[in-house]
Amino acid sequence: MGDVKGFLKIKRSKTEYRPVCERVLDYHDVVKPRSDEQSRDQASRCMDCGTPFCHWACPLANYIPEWNDLVFHQQWEKAYDLLKATNILPEVTGRVCPALCEHSCVLGINDDPVTIRENELAIIEYAFKHGLVKPELPKKRTGKKIAVVGSGPAGLSCAVHLNRQGHKVTVFERDDKVGGLMRYGIPDFKLEKKILDRRISVWKKEGLVFKTNHEIKDKKELKGFAAVCFACGSRVPRDLKVPGRDLKGIHFAMDYLVRSNKSKKAEAKGKKVVVIGGGDTGADCVGTANRQGASCVVQIEIMPQPADRRTADCPWPTFPRLLKTTSSHEEGAERHWSIITRKFVGKNGRIGQIICEKDGQPFAIEADLVILAMGFIGPEPIKGLNSKDFTCGDMRRGQSLIVWAIHEGENAAEAISNYLFLREPKR
C-alpha cells in the first residue's frame, strides 16, 4: 500500500449530509459528495490485509484492497477498470448498499472500518465525469435471442452479461421506465433517477433492447427466444390481517413509494403518519412522509430494539443486525420497538387510531395514514415454466439486497450461456 500507516494517521470520516432544514424541502440526494482528496485520504486507511474479509463479504467479490490502493495513488482509470470488472452498477451500490464489506473490514475489529462504499462511489463518479464509462460492445454476435422479463438489478445484470457475451437480448418491463424497484421503490433523495438513465443510455449503445409498458401475460409472447430469464422480483407484500384492515388510509409501503416516485404528490401533508416495519423500506417511507409535509411520523417495529454494537451472537466478520439511524430518521420520527399491532380503528370508513400492545399493555397511536412496510412473502406466480426458462434475483432467493440481485443476474447469465452451448448441434 502507498501508506502502510494510513490507518494510524487518519480516522474514518462520517458521511456528510445536506442540512435537514434544506433537504426535507426537496427530493435531491441528501449526501454531500466528497472531494478526490478526501477519497484519497480515506483509501489510505486500507491495510492491504493478507486475507481481505471485505472481499469475502461482498457478493460480487469486488477487488476492494486493490482499488483502494489505486485511489490512494490517484490512478483513477485503473481503479475504475477493476471496479467495472465485478460490478455493473457501482453508482447504485455505492449509494444504497448496506456495505456488507465494511462490516467485515479487518480494521473494524478494533477501529472504524474503511469507507469502502463511498470509495466505490468516488471511483465510478470520477469515471463518468472524465468520460471513462464507455459502451462495451461484444466482439461478435451468436445469433441467439434471449428475453429477460423484469428490469430490476437482477434482470439488468443478467441482460448486460448476456449481451456482452454476444447474444441478442430484449428486456421486457411492465412499468413505463426501466429500473424496477431501483426506479420506483427507492426515493430520489437516496437514488436520483438520472443516475439510472445515465447508465441505461450506455447499455442501449451496447445493443440492449428495452421494451417498457410491456407486461408478459402469456408465455406465448416469448415464442422465438432461445431462452428466457424471469427476474420479476419478490413483489407480493406481507399484509397485516387484523380487525379494521379494510379502513381507508392504510397502504402497502411499495404502493406508497411508487406513487410518490411517479408523481411527488403530497399524500401525507398535514397527516399523522404511522409506518409499521423498522427496515430500510420503512425508513424510506419516513423520509418520504417528511418531505410530503406530514404533521408527525411514528415508526413501530414488532422486534426488540437492536443493539448499537456487536454482541456475542454476531461476532466479526459476520454481518451484525445493529441499530440503524438513517438520514430519514434524523429528519424527524419517533421510533418504538417490541410493538404488536392488534387492530385498526376509524370513523366513517377511515383510519383514526392503531391499537397496539407492548409488554402486555395496550395503548393507542393516532393515525391518519398508515404504511405497512413489513417486507414481502414471495414473487407473483408464473405458470408453465420449462427447461429453457431461468429465474434470478429476489424472485429466486426471496427479498434481498441489490448487490445480491446483481450477483444473481450474473450467475443466471452464465447458466443461460451454458445451456445454449450444450444445445448447440454437434458438428
Automatic annotation (TrEMBL):
InterPro entries reported in the protein's UniProt record: DPD_II, FAD/NAD-bd_sf, FAD/NAD-binding_dom, Glut_synth_ssu1, Glutamate_Synthase, Helical_ferredxn
Biochemical pathway: Amino-acid biosynthesis
UniProt key word Amino-acid biosynthesis: yes
Domain FAD/NAD(P)-binding positions: 145-378
SUPFAM superfamilies: alpha-helical ferredoxin, Nucleotide-binding domain
Alphabetized UniProt keyword annotations: Amino-acid biosynthesis, Glutamate biosynthesis, Oxidoreductase
Domain Dihydroprymidine dehydrogenase residues, every copy: 26-130
A Gene Ontology BP annotation from the UniProt entry: glutamate biosynthetic process
GO terms for MF: iron-sulfur cluster binding; oxidoreductase activity, acting on the CH-NH2 group of donors, NAD or NADP as acceptor
PANTHER family found in the cross-reference section: GLUTAMATE SYNTHASE [NADPH] SMALL CHAIN
Entries under NCBIfam families matching the protein: GOGAT_sm_gam
Protein name from the UniProt record: Glutamate synthase
